[in-house]
Each structure stands twice: as C-alpha cells, then as structure tokens.
Amino acid sequence: MRSSSSFCPDMGQAKEKCGIFGIFGDTAAVEKCYFGLHALQHRGQESAGMAVSDGEYLSGHTGMGLVSEVFPQSRLREMSGNCQAAIGHVRYSTSGSSRLENAQPILVEYSQGQLAVAHNGNLINASLLRDEYEAYGHIFKGTSDSEIIVHLLAKPTHINKPDTMAHVLRHLQGAYCLLFMHPDRIEAARDPYGIRPLCIGQLQNKAYVIASETCALDIIDAAFVREVSPGEIVTIDKDGLHSRFFDGPQAVTPAHCIFEQVYFSDPSSTVFGENVHMVRAEMGRQLAREAPVDVDYVIPVPNCARCAAGGFSEELGAPYARGFTVSHYAGRSFIEPEQPMRDLAVKMKLNVIKELVKGKRLAVIEDSVVRGTTTRGKMGALKRAGAKEIHLRVACPPIRYPCFYGIDFPSREELIANERSVDQIRDYLEIDSIHYLSLEGMLSCLKSPPNHYCTACWSGKYPVPVDRAVSKFASERYQKKLFE
C-alpha cells in the first residue's frame, strides 16, 4: 500500500504507498517508532498504527489521522511498558478504501501465535487470492490487499512447509515491502523486483531499524547499514540480524519505481542508492537543457518541485523566486476523498505573490501533472495575478498509464495526457507553453542502468505482468455494501 512532507497540488489525485518502520532491541522502541513514523508522515496521512512486543505478547493501536493525532503522549506512555520492539505504519489507500478496518499494522492470533503485519505496496493478484480463500470460508475484516497475506500465512498446508514465510511470499505478485512482528522477532521482506524502497539502520546501542526511507533513520540517529535486497527476508532477533532469500538474489532485473525519486520520497532520503534531492535537481537541469525558455523568474509549484526548480534555474541562468506562499495549517489536498474538497484544500494551501509575478515571464516548474485540474487552477491564479507569460516545465514525462504497483493514479481515461497531445494539454491549462522531461532524459539523471527502473506509468511497459482489465480496486468494490 501506499505517500513528501512537501505539498504538491496536482498530485492531489494520486495517493501513493505507505510508510513502514520497525525497531528491535531498544527499551525506547515505542518512542523511536513514533519518531520514525513522524519522519515518514509524507508517505501516508489517512491512518497510522503501531504494534509492540514485550518479548512474550503483542499489543497494538491504530487510528485514522496523522501520527501525532493517533498517538498522543498518553497513548505512547501506555504502550511503552517493557516493550523493546515495535513496528509501525502510515497509510494511504491504493487498494482498499480509507476506513479504520484497513489501518495497519494488522494484529492477529492464529495457530502459530500472535502476528502483526505492515505492508507498503500493492498486490496485483490479491483479488484472485481473496476469491479463492473466501470460497473456502475465510472471513476478511477489511478491504485492503494486505489482509490476504495473513490468510496465506495461516493456511495449514503453508504452515507445514520448511520455510512458511518464503513459501507464502512466492505466492505474491506485485510490489511489496513487508514487516512481520512476532513476540520474539521482526522479519522484513521486499519483492523480487525491489519496486518499493526498504532500508536497514542500526543505533549506537546495536538495535536494528527497518524503514521505508533513510530520513526515518536520520531522525533517531540510526546509521544506514544497507537496503533490504529484492527477494530477501531479513530477520532481527536477540541474536542479531539474519538474512535469507525467498527468490534468489538478482533472480530478476530490478524495477525500482522512479516516482519515488520524482515525487514521493523525502528530499533528504537516499533511495535506490541515490539522494533524492540531488536526483531531482539533476532532472531540473536536464529539463532546462531540453526546453530552455527566456523568462524573468523560475518558480516552483511548492513544495516538491523546489529541487527540480533549483536545478532548472541553475542550468538556465534565470533567477529562482517564490511565486506562491504556502499555508502550513491547511491539510494536504490529496488526503481529501472527493475532488471538490481537494480543490478547496489547494486554494487554502497556496497563495500567489502578486507583486512578484505581475508583468513577469515565468517558468513554472512542476514535478508531475496527473489529471491537470489543480495545475490548471494554479496557472489561472498566476494569470489573474498579472503574469505576462506562463511556461510550464514538468520534471517527468507525461503520465499516460495507470499504476498497479502502489500509486493511486486515476484510470487512464482521467489522466490529462491520455490521448491528448502536448499542444492540447497546453490549451487546456491555458498557458503559453509546456514541456515535459523526456523519458530518456529522466533516465539519464539516474545512476543505475535504465532497465533497472519501472517506467510503466509513462511507457506502458509493466515489469510484473498485469491484466489491465482487472481493476486494482476490485476488492474494495466487492465489499462496498458491507460498510454502507
């Protein structure tokens, strides 16, 4: 499942992923898990949760809202006790809707004892597996794809396998980073394609940490150790860290999600071996090389386009300026479930600095454009403020295809770039020019080989085969009546 402490208006239509965090062997595990989740808040703002262990028993708490809302100090004190291990989760819904039943970690008790599970990604075969298990009488509590993993683990024929975890993970298709907590250990796993990021850190007291991004390690002063490898299971217990592969190392070519670099990850994080800010700045420089323009100012659409705008300004030799102010008291637009509320949240969030843009030629840098509705609103606000020219530069290619691996892009029909030429997009946005970073140019900004990245939302080439006729929201629609 599936989101940057930055605010990006047009991505209001694209929720993404989740954030997961785990820590083992620290008497302050609850507090450090809280801070780790806070650092990952940009990856999910619909719900938050934490499961903790005292070595013998698991307990947990989940709730709707931000980490600080779900876990006030009184709740943290209640959970701390003798706990020395914790896993946590912040959520956006990409498969399964936004309701408490889908908040994580999922905490269950089955024949093998207690288990808590936290998931970041999207399983493309979840509906098929769910149908199969429901046919055998299994009862599901929520509508998320993550819950199917618990049922797979509890299946008697799976339990009898020499390595139940490895056997179950081989059943999963799609993108996933997983944290499993038993009373005496934490296990982490990453899909064979390495689509979503997952890293390992270590504190000075030798306690190990697992997190979606390195920014969550930084906040608790944990040293980065390495990434969890694609197809790897990492176990952390009283004897330290142990590793095994359920899908041999480098059994398939990696397919890292570039959208982590374009938009979702925190600029301070190192993702897929590269600092996010540096990659975004280079994308901005490449964009300026591909589409130079004579302007008075380069301005970003706050906040996630700032890195690319800085690189664009540097390469172009035009001054960087703030065209918008940002209210830090308005909610992020993409947490709102309905488009009218998202549009209102955007208006509350951004204000144009009229005195700066009036009569000026502007290069407006955006990290991505999905539906285009909120981008059009921002361009209109600049025009009403008196901007002489507006030249939109987008630091990634046109998004033409849906994502099945954890990004909640709209259907293909709702994407602005679907069956529209760049000129038609320019006319819809009512601006003077628009240019997208080319796919080749974007890939040239990254260190790994081009074939090590997933480009499906731009190219339509899906690394994990997908039946596009099957909606990733089938599970949610199937259970809709249960919650009405």
Percent helix among the residues? 25-40%
CATH topology of the largest domain: Glutamine Phosphoribosylpyrophosphate, subunit 1, domain 1
**What does the radius of gyration come to?**
22 Å
The CATH class of the largest domain, by name, is: Alpha Beta
Estimated share of beta-strand residues: 25-35%
**Main sheet makeup:** 7 strands, antiparallel
Q: What general outline do the C-alpha atoms trace?
A: globular
What is the first-to-last residue Cα distance?
Answer: 23 Å
Describe what this molecule looks like in 3D.
The chain has 484 residues and is an alpha+beta fold. It folds into 2 domains: 9-264, Aminohydrolase, N-terminal nucleophile (Ntn) domain (Glutamine Phosphoribosylpyrophosphate, subunit 1, domain 1, 4-Layer Sandwich); 277-459, Rossmann fold (3-Layer(aba) Sandwich). The chain is built from 18 helices and 25 strands. It has a 7-stranded antiparallel sheet. Strands 6-7-8-9-13-14 form a 6-stranded antiparallel sheet, with helices on one face. Strands 18-21-22-24 form a 4-stranded parallel sheet, sandwiched between helices. Strand 3 and strand 4 (58-64) form a beta hairpin. The longest helix has 15 residues, at 276-290. It is globular. The protein starts with 14 loop residues before the first strand and ends in a 6-residue tail after the last helix.
